[in-house]
């Protein structure tokens, strides 16, 4: 397990950010978020926190599932529909073009 969360002056630096409590994906905001990390996250809309066990290496800027997602579900980021899940994704797995597609085309 690796952890990049830093405690300092009473605040932890998040691994992940979600924008809305309705989001079912969050974005990695650190370099080198490794598989098997208990990641610390913040929901920016209300400053609430969460933890999720990350199952894959996640590049910075990429998404992590916050819940188990089934094929046909809608991926929600920023409280908005960002696409259709095309392959089951377990909580903590990498969410990207291999398992989510836009609904625009």
Q: Tell me the Rg in angstroms.
A: 13 Å
Task: Provide the domain count.
Answer: 1
Q: Helicity level, as a percent range?
A: under 10%
Unreliable stretches (pLDDT < 50, length at least 5) are none
**CATH fold title:** Archaeosine Trna-guanine Transglycosylase, Chain: A, domain 4
Q: Any guess at the CATH architecture?
A: Roll
The end-to-end distance, rounded to whole angstroms, is: 39 Å
Largest sheet: 6 strands, mixed
Count, helices: 0
Query: What's the count of strands?
Result: 11
Short description:
With 105 residues, the protein is mostly beta strands. It has strands at 7-8, 11-12, 16-18, 25-28, 37-43, 48-54, 63-65, 74-77, 80-85, 94-95, 100-101.
Can you tag this structure with a few keywords?
105 residues; mainly beta; Archaeosine Trna-guanine Transglycosylase, Chain: A, domain 4; six-stranded mixed sheet; three-stranded antiparallel sheet; 0% helix; globular
